[in-house]
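User: Predict the complex.
Assistant: Input components as received:
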Amino acid sequence: MNRLWETLIKAFSWACGIILLGAISCIIGYLFMKGAGVIRLDLIFGDTPPLDAILLKRQVLDGLFPAMAGTFFLVCFSVFTALPLGLAAGIYMSEYAGGSIRRVFSFSFDILAGIPSIVIGLFGFSIAVFLHRHFSDRIFPCLLISGLSLAFLVLPYIIRTTQLSLETLPARTRLTALALGATRFQNIRYVLVPQSLSGILSGVVLAVGRCAEDTAVIMLTGAVAMAGVPQSLLSSYEALPFYIYYISSQYTNPHELATGYGASIILLGICTFLFLAAFMIQKGLARRALYYP
Amino acid sequence: MPCTTHETMKENHIKIKVRSLDFWYQNRQILEHVSLDFTRHTITAIVGPSGTGKSTFLTTLNRLWENIPDAQMKGRVEIEFDGTFRDIYARSFSLTQLRRSVGMVFQTPNPLSMSIYKNVAFPLKLAGYKNRKEVGNKVEKALKQAYLWEEVKDRLHEKASCLSGGQQQRLCIARALILEPEVLLLDEPTSSLDQNAGRIIETLLLDLRERCTIIIVSHYLDQVGRIADTVMEFPLKS
Amino acid sequence: MNRQFEKTAEMVLFLPALLSVILTLAIFVFMLVFGLPLMKGGRFFELITGSWSPGHGMYGIQPMIMGTMAIASLSVFFAFPLSMGCASLISVLAPRGFSTFLRHTVRLMTGVPTVIYGFVGIFLLVPIIRELFQNGSGFCILSASLMLALLISPTMILVFMESFDRVPKSYLDAADALGGTPVQKLVYVIIPQARQGIWMGVILSMGRSLGDTLIALMLAGNAIATPGSVLDSVRTLTAHIALVIASDYESLEFKSVFACGLILYGFNALIIVMLRYVESKGTQ
């Protein structure tokens, strides 16, 4: 290889790095340039006193509070639905499944993890239609349906992180309790799960982020532009990412557009925070692993 | 017979009988036709070059190999409990009971990430002991047997990972002793420790001979000379 | 009692796993059952090759399939060299400090919400494309695939990087001992060794861009037409689902979204099978 080629490859790589960094800083910089001015408390609460809004005493009409509350309820509902199922399935995959069951199950979890979120949304929507026709005509796309669909979306992530953090435990840790007379389940309960907790937890935090940012699922299953703070599981609701999508095509004045930028910054902040939190938890795991001989 | 025993033994002193044991790992034969007897209340040292299946052999005595993927075993292992020899691979034999009667200590100390006290009490928790006072007494007794009580009695609720390597290994021995096992398996217990810490454990093992039958895998011939009553040499497979 | 408890515990853990498998199948079955009216009588082929003209009773989704293919392949085409460059920079060429910085940035980028890429794309990228080419509205294949390339690059870079870092150190030492420069090490040792990881990264990102909704929906213009150039506006399968869902769900137009769903499901299954295939070839 001659010198020229080497120099070219080097230059190309550096150019790629600079393009990537440039592009992402352009996006974030642009967002802040346009939206930093509106990041004030009234972006979230409008004219309503914050405490009254949080205690649900008064409706917030021109702020992001209902959308944030909607996203919050949505995330809580879907993560708490997906968590027990995902944990159990992940533990089963890592500790019990063998042979052909293992192969078939892990293939199907791979498929589930890869299904585009819009298809999951469509599935949720058709469940709503199905329930509406056959059970109760009071059921429409709503918080419940969205929450369930999002739970389906993150279920494979939780299964996989649980399975992975259990499977990567060193053989020594695995055998310790068994050598002391633990049964298979005692070993899982007292040693394996506690030892892999931070790995599992960081996976869960990432799943929370995934729920908070997903737009495709909720736009098919009940998110709307104006609904106020959700009153029940069967009502439609607002959500931060849907609000951003909605504003991008339906804004009528510069003020609304600026609110869209503000909402983007808030969503970006939430996701970055969750991401860093997951990272810290993982780091904590690594540090503990150093001390744990 | 691939293994040689340096001592003759009488049937009524035998604790463990191993008969024509074969062992494969990933289709590679590690142990071939091993037949051995182990005498009660003695320290038997297993020596030999690495790769001859010494550690593997230990795991056939408490069936721990069954948790290692791609391993396979054939043969018969009998251990004497309450005066009769029991086939430990028989279906009717409880695996957890076996592991409680045959303790094991590993090459590197492996305390769990909990307090010193909880580590030692852990096997009791697994066995379903509820009485706090009884647990406390047993923990103290086990720690004393393992020569660790004096060093840790004031900080029982600190993390076990704060202890030195030698202390951690004695903690693991205490943990293995708390269920009063009749057999104790040790897989190079001093190889990750400095000489002093190793010496303490050697003295401790000599003391423990009164209570259980000890089988130790060791690389150090001088150590074997100091503590072993019987030496078995695992030769390289042909 | 102990044995009974162990059995129960295993059962309690098994059922959620089974439920998740059933869910995977249920999604497929729902798409199939709801989309059936359009596909009856062997019209499935007609559906995926026909054109879209509801006025004439034609609900063919061929334009959307073409749109999806165009945007996904173009975005991988953009993202691949970018990711190769960045991964090489991080794993081999850059000094340690910068490499760590870039690595963390790339990780963090995977957490940026898709809708934000779309939002900024509308107000920043689309006008630029419009001005640059003086052709149409700027909502086109090119805008969508550029943004999508940025979205999938971090994943691709991370997969590449991991496969670069997995190259055994002894190989690298051999190259160093022969007096190889970092670039030579990269080109002659690392990249050939990491071929499997590179394939996996590309396939994985292809899957992501086939399944992405928001960027295509917000930036590609959503016109139902078979694309002729990268400056044409198209509608992807995913965007079609999002746009049609608001209509009456008894109509045939509505049924076509389930056909889109089925095809996306099929794409995904294909991607997974390909990933598995590449993975198994690597371990042999």
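Chain C has twelve helices and two strands.
Let me know if you want any component modeled separately.
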